[in-house]
Each structure stands twice: as structure tokens, then as C-alpha cells.
Design brief:
The protein has about 425 residues and is an alpha+beta fold. It is built from 17 helices and 17 strands. The N and C termini lie far apart (about 45 Å). About 0% of the residues have low confidence.
Amino acid sequence: MTPREQLSAAEARRVAVAAQGLDRRRPDRVGTRQLNDALRRMSVLQIDSVNVFARSHYLPLFSRLGPYDTADLDRLLFGRRPRYVEYWAHVAAFVPAPDRPLFAFRMAEFRRKYASDPDGWVGKHRDVVDWVRAELAARGPLRPAEIERDVRRSPRGGWWEWDVVKEALEFLWLFGEVAIAGRRGFERRYGLAVDVLGEELAGREVPRPEAIRELVRRAARAYGVATAADLADYWRIRDRGAILTAIADLVAEGELIPVTVAGWTTAGRPARAWLHRDARVPRTVDAAAILTPFDPMVWFRDRAERLFDFAYRIEIYTPAARRRFGYYSLPILVDDAIVARVDLKADRPAQTLRVQSAWWEREPAPSVVERVARELRQAATWQGLDRISVSGWGDAVDQVAAALPHAARHTAGPASG
């Protein structure tokens, strides 16, 4: 594209939506190729255990591709020799298996932080850590429940607490010695990295400056246009100096173009931002999607507010009576705006998608109401639910229910979860 120095706020929104692939026409059939393409565009898929509507790692693919068979994604993520692996990338997340060496610097940081202090947790529980490592070496990948049955008597006397063994597994995973060898349901199987990934991949490391430069490159491509804070948050890298060095290198290589975005400010001055050279600046975008709060489109709350004037807070941990929007409300994107948020629950015994609450971000046009309703119908189809029921809680519920002519109504309020 032709280098440019300034973007309007609307252009920046459209760049961001297009970079995430949310404006692409949904395929008639979703298979492995389409899933891999969407994953490649994002570079990372965040994991979260909440399962009121659907587990969070399933949702970004639905947002981009429409209804798909989650078993196809499971085969990609949890196969015997997986194409994707879990690591602390954004937070706990899936990344392509060949990308794991990019996080060797993070593994080293975790080892320095947690394993070097003899008075720290790892130092005080070295016998447990050594035993868990030896168990995995002798027996291969195991589920925690399989280890739990064999937790043996400590050399110091007494039985080890099971929570201590689980903690040891998590530290070994953070240190890179252990990898996740799949899941049963949502329960992980842990194995030595060399057994799960093979010796070549498990032993490969990318030097820290090179790794951070590559991660910044991928974040810039995934975001389209971004500030340094945006690029750092994509991988939760707290070393601002390393981020700015990587940005400078990529500018020198011509991959990033310095820009300002109207309305993006820092301390009252225009914020520094960068446009990826491959980013499109569409005149319009045609997008409609229900998003998880852990979608790259909105997961960095500062960026979501800057892009969309969308302030979001997860209310799972808010006392029920004090919830403003619902237990786990999901943003809805239409074109280049977040237009609503809905709290969804898959009531599987009743074969019903329950809209527990629905709220507009601004007064909607009739076409927006219909597109929101269409996304809810798609969500019910994807989850194999035959019916939709809309509550009475929220300023959008009556319009949404009217756009769903066969929808039932039910009672729900802040205490619902």
C-alpha cells in the first residue's frame, strides 16, 4: 500500500477489523484449511475455562467463519503430534507448534523468577518437582488424575498434598520442561516437552531480541494498526525498551509505517502508532460477529476503548446483585462498530439458547437489529440448540426478541448466571 502519515478514527477501525479477518466472507463449508487460515491470521488463541455458552477458544473461529464442527478444531489442537501447543503466550493460549521456541526467553524468565531462589516455592518443593519430572520421564504423558493415584510418600515423611503436585506440573510447564499433550474434556495431559514435541522442536530456542522482534511483527500484522502498548500486550511483553527496539528495526526494514490516528492521544498529544505495510485500509467493511472478551479484537481493554469507544469489564467475579450487563456478556461487532453486548447461556437440557441480557452501545438502525438477531440464530445453530429465549433484562431485549419471531421470553436479571 502507499505509505501514509495519518488515519482517521474510522479508517483505523476498518484496518483493525480487516486485519483480524472479520470482514471476510464466511465460507460455505468450514474445514481444516479455513481453521488454519484463521488461526494463522491471529497467531494466538487464548484459553479460558468459562463454559456458559461455549468455551472461549472455540468462539474466535465461530466469529470469523460461522458455524463449524468444534471436533475439527479439537483434532488440530489436541492431536497426538499437535500442530498447535499451549503456552503462556498472551496468557494461557494455543500457538503454532513451530512458534514455541519464540517463547524460550519467557521460559528463562520464569525459571529465574521462580526456580533460582532456594527459599521460593520451587526451592522448597524440589523433591516434589524432581519426582513429578521423573514420573513423566518413566511413564510418558499423564493426566493429573493418573498422577494423583500414585502420589507417593515424601522422602521427608508424610504424604504430599495433591495441590503441591499440581503446582509442580504448572511450574514445569512454565519453565518449558513440560508440554501439554492434549486434553480430556478440559483436563490437561502433561508430558515432558521432548516426548510431546520431539527433540528438535523441544530443544530449539530463539534468542530474545530476535524472538521479540518476530512477535512484534506478528502482532503488528494481526492488529493492522497499533500503538507500542498494543503490540506489547498482544504477547504480554512488559519490556517497553525491547518493544521499541523491535519497532525501530521493523520500521527500518519497511515493514511498519509510522502514523498518527485521529483521536489517539497520550498525555494530551497524538499517540505514536504504526501501520503494517500489508494492512488494508478499506473504504467500508461488512462484518457481523459475536466476540468473546478474549478475542484479539477486544482483549486489550485500552485498545478496545480507543478503537470503538467500548468500555468492557468481565462481571463473573462481580457480586450478582451489582452486575451491570450480565455474568459473561459478549460484545457484538457490526461493520466497524461494537453495537451491543449480550449475555448468552446454552441451556442444553432445554435445547435453548438463552439471551440472559442484551444492551445497545448506541441507538441502533433497524438493519443493525436484524444483523444482531441473525448472529444469535447462527449461534444457536452452531451450538445445536433448537430454540432461542430472550429475557427482559437490558435495553435491547425487546427489539432483539421482535427480530426473532419464534423466540420465547423468560425472566432473568443481575442475579442470573
